Amino acid sequence: MTKRKTKKTAKHPLEHEVESVLAWLKRHSTKHTLEGMARYAIPSDNAFGVSVSDIRVLAKRVGRNHELAAALWETGWYEARMLTSFVDDPALVTPAQMDRWTREFDNWAIVDTLCFALFDRTPHAWRKVAEWHDRREEFVKRAAFALLWGLTVHDKSATDAQFVEGLAFIERAASDERNFVKKAVNMALRAIGKRNRALNTAAVATARRLALSTNATERWVGKDALRELTGPSVTRRLAARRGSEARPSGRAS
What we know:
The chain is mostly helical. The protein folds into two domains: 14-89, no CATH class; 108-245, Serine Threonine Protein Phosphatase 5, Tetratricopeptide repeat, CATH 1.25.40. Helices cover 67% and strands 0% of the residues. It has 14 helices and no strands. It has helices spanning 13-27, 31-36, 52-62, 66-75, 78-87, 95-103, 108-117, 125-132, 138-154, 160-173, 179-193, 197-211, 216-229, 232-246. Helix 1 (13-27) packs across helix 4, helix 10 packs parallel to helix 12 (197-211) and helix 11 (179-193) runs parallel beside helix 13 (216-229). The longest helix has 17 residues, at 138-154.
């Protein structure tokens, strides 16, 4: 009896890329990094144990690749999902993709990295802050305020009015006592107050109202933000920024 030859199906190039990335991550994993994740409340069941600095090195080698980012996310591996933050193309990220990924968020590190390195650079960022800020799911809600926090740094064209609306979202969410939500709310409030003097005034007013609240979580958010926003470091920085903006850019003719 002659044996029937089976034809091997060629792998799609994208599949090869995913396998190559996962192999690289495995080679650069360490037991120390994996065990250390628990100290920062990051689940390690689907993780190799690769440092963020090494993930950034890999991202530079890979470059921007929207298709690859989507495939890496589907693997479910923690480091592969972290890598998507640096290799996906913000211009190609869709609102549906943002919603789909946020529904799968299971730890603060993925939330913050996606929001700071990818989502806040998309044209949908402000819309998602508005949509997610009152969601019940802990990490979706955190994403709204991590995204708002990231926008204070990366959206140079945003108006003060947009951040003032963000302060209203903060005030509304400040009573949420869940650790990963209240910390993101607090950080967003502090970040808005450091953007410029006008927003500092608005953020301080919000923080003062919260600090006087009968709700313990609101008081913590307000008092903690006040310490930084009225402190000498922020005051000096904003004064220096205002001075540099007031100086003429060139010589008078």
